[in-house]
Amino acid sequence: MQRAGFFFLACPDPEIVRERVERQLADSGQPFSREVFWGDEELGAPFWSALTVGSLFAGRRAVILRRAEAAPPDFWPKLTPALKGFNDAVWPFFCFEGPLDKKGGPKFPKTLTEQPYFTVAEKRKWIFVSPGLTRRDMGPRLADWAGRRGLVLEPGVAEALAAALPASLAHADNELAKLELSLGDRTSLEMADLALLSHHEGMDGFAFLNALSEGRDPTKVWQEIFDKELAGEEMIFPFIGLLLYEARMMWRLAVGEADDVRLPPQVRRQKEAMARRLGSAGLTRLFEAAFAAEAGIKTGARKPDQAMEFLTAELFRLFGGQGRQTGRVGP
């Protein structure tokens, strides 16, 4: 069956959008390279060239416009020449990642819905609309996740996990990745393991690191995180887990092994900048500080609040001191 000539997607969860695009490409049975553009950035000559210029030697390509809701109104009429016919070499995807309307429908701009090619997309069902990840979706996703990894969920764990995971596919996947890392060689997930989950959506490990990198007082930074976000000593382990997750991501960015890291351009640039500043020595010290704080609590050597104070002070020294003065980070 012939693939769609172009495709529109509307979902407030960017990871679901990305997943759906990948499914469409896989179901086509044909190899596609991917060129990604962003609606909140200038769509200049590179975009139009990718959308319209074919090559026998370049192969097929998917041209993916992320955050299409941010494109200016006069952008949509300009697409008419490129979308009026089927192009076997180019498959355009337009991803609307803003919230749906009150009735659960997509917020497509009028200058788009008035175009002939959009009428074709509606008629041929080249439009995907989703409200995002729902609790109803969690069970099948967890069963698939556990099955692919050979994990056994103890009684009650699947239900508790489905209720605890955030309703964001990327965040849910991050939480599952943390659980998987914590298991080590174990293949059974127990109820006690769920204590690692980050139950508070406001908890942002990178924001914490960024605050320290800007030279804010470590005691005030720690107090802000503890009072406003940790909401109890039981959340310290998940927060340390978030810091380790950020450290692993920055390590991959630093060593050039992050082709599959999916971040908005501005966020990625911020994390790449911090990864470059810290370097391998600094990132190693970040890992060591987080592990030391965790071990201090588990061995009883430190109370949770003492461990957080220790961790914050260690990270402040990492970002400050000699490294801040010389532009490098190191002992």
UniProtKB/TrEMBL annotation:
Domain of life: Bacteria
Record GO terms (molecular function): DNA binding; DNA-directed DNA polymerase activity
One annotated GO biological process: DNA-templated DNA replication
Keyword terms, alphabetized: DNA replication, DNA-directed DNA polymerase, Nucleotidyltransferase, Transferase
Any one cellular-component term (Gene Ontology): DNA polymerase III complex
Name assigned to this protein: DNA polymerase III delta N-terminal domain-containing protein
Organism for this UniProt entry: Solidesulfovibrio magneticus (strain ATCC 700980 / DSM 13731 / RS-1)
